[in-house]
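Whether sequence alone determines local backbone shape is best considered at the level of individual chains. Part of our work consisted of pairing the sequence of a single chain with a tokenised description of its backbone. This step matters because it turns folding into a mapping between discrete strings. For completeness, the protein is quoted in full, as a sequence line and a line of structure tokens:

_____
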Amino acid sequence: MMRILLLGGTGEGRRLAGVLSRHHDVVSSLAGRISAPTLPEGEVRIGGFGGAGGLSSWLREQRISALVDATHPYAQGITANAVVAARAAQVPLLVVHRAPWHPVVGDTWRWADTMDDAYMLADSYRTPVFLTIGRQELRAFEGLPEVVARVIEPPGCSLPSSWHVITQRGPFSVSGERALMERHRIGVVVTKNSGGDQTCAKLVAARQLGIPVVVVRRPALPSGTAAVSSPRAAVQWIDALTRGAE
């Protein structure tokens, strides 16, 4: 049996916690940014560690055998701290990021490397914008007059009075996304390339309606970081570590 720290908060993290807890001692860590998160099975820790140094100390103190980062693909700061902490504590690290979306025939995608780039692209259309990028990035788009912004929880910051903010958690249906885009006369969608099934309906709806999509590319992982795209592959990685420790 291994003692595993699982940085979660995603569907992949919850699935991994359920599977790994059958054979290992798993602690799931959630950042605490959502007030009522869906909790995984087993032991749960909520809140930060105090940066890479605090996480490294925690790994040593708790005698962690493996660190699995199953946070959101855009949780760049958490992943960077995990890489530094794992190396300092000499703990094996695996990043689990779901496979990204890819455009198909009929899509009109424009790629952006940063939120500032995405803002410039969205502004060039001069039409109502549908923002599906999470609440922490909304301020980058304050200069847009006509915006529908969908977030899981209220933004917690002042936004233009002309904006329409929707608080809603996925999964979403294609028919629902089409109705929303038609009702608000959406001319362009802005999204992160999060991947997965929970929120991909907006891409299908945009394709069907001929609406362009601005897609913010994922941040690159630190060099040399082991990564897989599914909980199944993560379990196989843990199994290999377990056999190596026997």
Summary: The two ends are 10 Å apart (CA to CA). The helical segments are 11-20, 51-61, 76-89, 115-123, 174-183, 201-209, 231-245. The first helix runs from residue 11 to 20. The chain has seven helices and twelve strands.
